[in-house]
Each structure stands twice: as C-alpha cells, then as structure tokens.
Amino acid sequence: MLRVDDIEYIEDLGLISQAPNGEISISNRIYQEIIPRQLSWESQSGMALKQAWFVDDDGRLIISKLIRELQQFFRDHSESWIERFQYKEAGPRILLQAFLQHIVNGRVMIDQEFGLGRTRTDLYVQWPLPDGRAQIIIIELKILYKSREQTIGDGMKQVMKYTDRCGADEAHLIVFNRRPEVPWDEKIFCEKRELVEDGERNGVTLVIWGM
Q1: What's the pTM?
Q2: Is the pLDDT of residue 72 over 70?
Q3: Domain boundaries of the chain, sorted by first residue
C-alpha cells in the first residue's frame, strides 16, 4: 500500500501529480517513458530474447508472437518474478513492459497510462515501418477482479475508445488472473472478438489473452 508520506515526497519532486479524487498519474511524457523503463530494467536484463524473432519480412512487429512468449514466461515464472516487486499489482504490467522494452530497444515509442488505484493500464505502441509509416498497436491490461466475461467486457469498452481515437492497426487485451486456486490451463487462453459500436464493426479485431 502506498504511504501518504511517499506520495507527497515524489509529488514534491515533480515525478507525479495527484487529482482531487486521489488518482495518481506520472507528470509528463518523459517521466512516463523513463520510470517504467527503470522499473523493468532488472526484468529485462534476464531475458534471452532477440528482436529479429518478432519482426516479419515486411518489417512489422509480430506483437502476437511476443505476447504468446510472455504467456509461457508468465506461466513458468510468475510466482518468483512477481515476488520481486514491492507492489504486487504492478508486477504483471512491469513484466510486459520489460518484454516490450527488451525487444524494441529504443526503436519505438511506447506511451503508457498508469492506472494507480484503478484496475487497468494501457500501452500505445508506435513501431516504425520501412516505408516511413507507423504500425500502431493498443495493448490494454486488466487484472481479473470480477468474472472473466465482465473483465473482458470492461476491457473491450476501453479498447474501443482507444482504437477510435488513434486509428490503431491492432488491439490486444491481456487479462491477468492472480487467483491461486485457478489452474493454469484455465488462465491461459487466446480468443478473438470483433469490436462493434452501435451495431457496426470498427474494422479492428481484438485479440484477448489470458494469463
């Protein structure tokens, strides 16, 4: 749990800002990039992953392959890795950030929205393509507190807003199930759903990952 003194201290340093309702956010885009990079550095340094494994012949980032790799890694090592983090709720998010930073290696803009005190956080990834365009990927993270279907439903609503706003090429929703009594064969899944608003498809297929 965050202590009031800790929050006031880092707010005085200018690292974060706090809204009247208590919601905390990282102050600016520079800190939004630096802070998660530093938080995930220890995790990155132990990963034997190469960028070439996740880039296709057209220079596009194969994000589904990266997330599938994360699924297996999380299944094999989540207990030991999550225990490294002081704030356990941030563990899954930092692991994903570590995977992304390790692979993109400075080639991409990763914009993140921290949801401290909320149940979500998201990543907006811009991967530069050889023709000068950018591959835009939305990744929404949810910790499962409600039922699986309710959690997915909440995530789909959020992703719909993001894809409409930024013109994403791909959208992914990752649902982390932290309940120890649930077997891994139930936690691990991958399915696709069409994003539909007012009865119309928006052209982006949402890939939902469980882990």
Answers
A1: 0.71
A2: yes
A3: 4-210
